Amino acid sequence: MPHYYLSVLAWVAAGAWTAAACLGGEALEPASPASQASGPAVSSDQLSRAVAQFNRGAGLLEQYRSDDASKAFEEVLRLFPHWTAARFNHALALRMMYSRETLEQARKDFDEVLRSDPNHLPARFCLGLCYCLGSA
After folding, report:
1. How far apart are CA 105 and CA 24, in angstroms?
2. Is the model more confident about 67 or about 9?
3. What kind and span of H or E run contains 53?
4. CA 94 vs CA 1, 22, 35, 56, 73: distances in Å
5. Contact call for residues 126 and 15 (beta carbons, < 8 A)
6. I want to staple 102 with a disulfide (CB 3.0 to 4.6 A). Which of 30, 33, 47, 97 is the partner?
7. Once rounded to an integer, what is the mean pLDDT over residues 10-39?
8. What is the DSSP letter of 10?
9. Domains of the chain and any CATH numbers
10. Gap between the Cα atoms of 56 and 65, Å rounded
């Protein structure tokens, strides 16, 4: 596994990070699924299931089990499609699979993260890697 993924994985180790941003020294913190929920109320069971799958996916990323991690984050995104941290981690898992199809989906996911949060520096970095490294 190339060394640059280790830095990115450190950022997403538990699915949440606080990093000093170069933009005025602000802290970057991903939004929780509860803060992104809109419309009908979210049940505590749905929230618990999403958080459990999110944590499972983050653990699988740490083990470099990208395929299984991707599936866990897909479940989270099915429940909470606007959870930025889950979308980012899903994209990261897809990029780590090194196939043309997963690379394209990873690019779309990183773009979606940047549409919802233009200052999401890890997504900007990873999207740059996708373009810099090209397809597998």
Report:
1. 32
2. 67
3. helix 44-62
4. 14, 27, 25, 16, 10
5. no
6. 97
7. 39
8. H
9. 42-136 (1.25.40.10)
10. 11
